[in-house]
Amino acid sequence: MKDKLIKAALSFAVVCVLGACTKNYLDINSNPYEVDKEQMEAKDYAIASGLSAMFGTVVSTDVNTAQFTDCLLGSTQGGYYADANNGWTNTISKYNPTDNWTNVFMYSDKVIPQLYSNMSNVEGISEDPLVLAILKIVKVCVLNRVTDTYGPIPYSEIGSTGKIQVAYDDQPKVYSQMFDELDEAIALLDENIDRSITSTTDQVFDGTAVKWCRFANSMKLRLAMRVVYTDFVSSKGLSPQQLGEQAVAHSVGVMQSNADNAQLSSLAFGKDGNPLYTACMYNSPAGSVTGGDSHAAADIICYMNGYEDPRREKYFSKAQFSGDNALEYVGMRRGIAIPALSAVGLLYSGVNFVDGMATPLQWMNAAEVAFLKAEAVGVFGWNMGGSAKTFYEQGVRLSFEQWGVAGVDEYLVGTTLPESYTDPNGGATSYSTQLSQLGVAWNDGASKEEMQERIIIQKWIANFHLGNEAWADFRRTGFPHLIPAMESAVGNNSQGIRNLTLGARRMSYPADEATNNPENYAKAVEMLGGSDNMATRMWWDCNPAVK
């Protein structure tokens, strides 16, 4: 009987956790992810199923959800992907999206409800401190992406079902709670640092407490840097600098090697595989070798072409334009009148995934952590246990190693500059402005601004596919300089954006919140301190140099 129940649990987990729905996105409001404890007597399997469902909410394993949150939002605003489906007239990149494009992080049942319901279920059947620590870390990873999209969000008042029609918290309170939960997780892991849980239960770190602890400390450093320009003080009275230094000084510290990288194994995917891969390939025209709905953005290719970056072959598929002067890699500009995909769009470089649909889903990598330390030391004077140059070059080396690319020594002494953008489609969307005056090689005599720009450029390149993180860095620092949307395509947009260089600073709340949760919505907009549109800056977006 027990064997039959375990098999039933396995079947249940595969159907509910791994399946993806790609049509009628928000029409499907049911939550099929709850673990039925009466049916699932195999406790370990119930825990595994619940954790797997929670992991699928960080970068969603549901293709439609990931397309909206990561391909059409984070990776366009972060300069990685460009919308290539010419059937789209209202897009985030043109600052005139429809509500169903901008509400997904908050209204999708594949994110907050799936996270909270499974977290509640696992808490109800497990007292293992390692499992409870993982729950807290995953919750922070998910809600950090949500708050950095909208600003104030429901957090402390959300119940076990994940219903969001409750009171919102302002961002300082959200961040305070996220730091508290990371500290709680780190404390639990400290007490169980030599333990592990069953590897099949954990498709991220194979159940290893040390790696989860390093990830939690790395997240703490990431969040400390996010709020570096604010006057934030944690519930324990700590400044961003103290929080960041505390994370690095911890006994197991932060991510140090690519073996520490946080990524979701392909074992957690369903039949559609890596959701970003599948979303980029949607609507590929017949004969296309570059993909469909999303192609590589001109921004990142211009930088990498100029730097003669050998990671290009890992990041992008080759462009298909013909002619003696045709470049191997050519991106599509974001925020334009999208050309016909079947005739012109398919000629631009596509987004490459090294293992196709089986490519693991990145959450955070060791290279990013090295760049966080480089910025912390070089720009803000934090004690990270080394020099800015050491951490900067370590970040580049870790990224080359992660992608299996040679030539890092030559790259690190490079002085060439990013190229300007020439659109091979008759120059229709060309952009002649030089994106940066900086090469790769470190400059010990650089100003703090130059140091920050150089670090963020290389961090941005190393974080390819992590679009929401790139967008957050762009808003926080103003780097890297990106190619703005075209005025002719944006026109009199509906989201209040008049400065195309600054671009989108947030997403507007789901339209139904004003009707379904009016009192709390009104308070959220008041806490936001501006109009509920894409031009209003959130709390941590306060760098005086970004204007």
UniProtKB/TrEMBL annotation:
UniProt key word Protease: no
Keyword Lipoprotein listed: yes
Coiled coil: none
Listed name of the protein: SusD/RagB family nutrient-binding outer membrane lipoprotein
SUPFAM superfamilies cross-referenced by the UniProt entry: TPR-like
Pfam families: SusD-like (PF12741)
Taxonomic source organism: Alistipes shahii
Keywords, in A-Z order: Lipoprotein
